[in-house]
Amino acid sequence: MSVQSIERALDVLESLAEHGGAAGLSEIAAKTGLPYGTIHRLLRTLLARGYVRQESDRRYALGAGLMRLGGVAEGMVGAWARPYLARMVELSGETANLAVMEGDFVVYVAQVPSPRRLRMFAEVGRRVLPHSTAVGKVLLADRAADDAVTLLERTGMPRRTPNTITEAGAMLAELGRVRALGYAMDLGEEELGVHCLAVPVSDGERVVAAMSVSGPAERIDAVDREELAEGMRGIARAFGAELAPVSGER
Amino acid sequence: MSVQSIERALDVLESLAEHGGAAGLSEIAAKTGLPYGTIHRLLRTLLARGYVRQESDRRYALGAGLMRLGGVAEGMVGAWARPYLARMVELSGETANLAVMEGDFVVYVAQVPSPRRLRMFAEVGRRVLPHSTAVGKVLLADRAADDAVTLLERTGMPRRTPNTITEAGAMLAELGRVRALGYAMDLGEEELGVHCLAVPVSDGERVVAAMSVSGPAERIDAVDREELAEGMRGIARAFGAELAPVSGER
DNA sequence: CCCCTTTTTCCGCTGTGTGGAAATTAGCTT
DNA sequence: AAGCTAATTTCCACACAGCGGAAAAAGGGG
Description:
Chain A has 2 domains: about 5-60, Arc Repressor Mutant, subunit A (Orthogonal Bundle), CATH 1.10.10.10; about 70-245, GAF domain (Beta-Lactamase, 2-Layer Sandwich), CATH 3.30.450. A 6-stranded antiparallel beta sheet of chain A has the order 6-5-4-9-8-7, sandwiched between helices. Chain A has a 3-stranded antiparallel beta sheet with strand order 1-3-2. Chain A is built from 9 helices and 9 strands. By secondary structure, the first copy, chain A, is an alpha+beta fold. The first copy, chain A, is globular and about 55 Å long. The structure holds a DNA duplex.
């Protein structure tokens, strides 16, 4: 069982983030559906600890404390993966992501944006269902078929776009293809017009993460998939090798 | 009044951060002094929302959700200030910081590190008392004398190093000097061997922030203060001008 | 295989968090 | 200026959510 007030505090912080980092109390109330008194009390607590700031017009904004926590969290995985992601950006010209499985969700844990003007928006920290993304397919493909089916039954396979695969049978076939090819595609299955190519990251015995590049459909479709996938696999392999060793410190 | 469970959840997150981003339950218990059952329940809530992750060895680590919130928070002020801070780094060769007053504390909200090998460690998000830092003096100097004295009485003026100014009278004289010169120095008053020079950022009517450069005493002392301060004031003025306009959107 | 350590679950009591509604403040409009 | 509206902030009695001690379970060495 979860702690209600913490969940609500997180709702408040997330709604602030969705409003671009700052919002009035009533905007938060509209978004979260919580009563005013409650939100105000939560905000005061966060305020006292520096995780939220109040601007001169009384609006609330995400505070500097979050920068610190975020920085440490990012330092953990992100900085580790960043050089490899940067090489993928160099290779493909597109935004590169690192994602891991967390429960039934795929979570993006690091990103290096493409230098191009038209590029993917930051989605670090976002949680998505695996069936509609390239990284999700790669991560699912490593599981036993019945395990994957169980998960898909639990989550359902909601249709995100007309291209989304919504049938378990079709998904199993797709996962087989992913295993055979060694990479997965997302052809506008999560968001129309956005295509991705993902490859697995293995620490030697298991697939622990997936790395992908994503960008506008036209640009992604223009490249030779096999060739791009081969380049990405090389980078993912190097990253995986760094994860593998005897765990290092402590 | 604050919400207990949120405060405690923040304690837990902070203790994780202090442990370098990951720790076992008992390490957290030792640091926070909270009972095991309580910590575990808090962690489960944070876990369910992706703000904490559990590694295979059952240790807990800061999660990707924080990267997202931190990113948005940083995006707000930091990205805004970053180009200006970068110019200060270029000008001085030292790490540049942006700090604001929050309650009785000075909080560092953005930083651009020096390219040099020997440089200040990231302290974004850190809260310090104003009396022992250059940015703090700049921010205090904008206040009425009795206002500043009240604040200093509230916080006390703890001695951080042998150089710390710990007497209200001496501090008032120092603040007068800061107003007259248009910049403040910190000569190892917060940390021995670290010197800083800070200038105010004004949005046209009030000092809303302070920008500083800091580095090893030898390097900071080697430059012409007046000249460096003049250059920094120019940059701070430009930044302040960007903050001033009719607030922009909405 | 057994013992020791660390993590996880459980459950009855109490003190903490809740939220409706009133008071206050800020920002407009006349 | 004064009055109005829309927002934020404070208050309080009740109820139940969260607390934490202690027992159970899971690891992990030896």
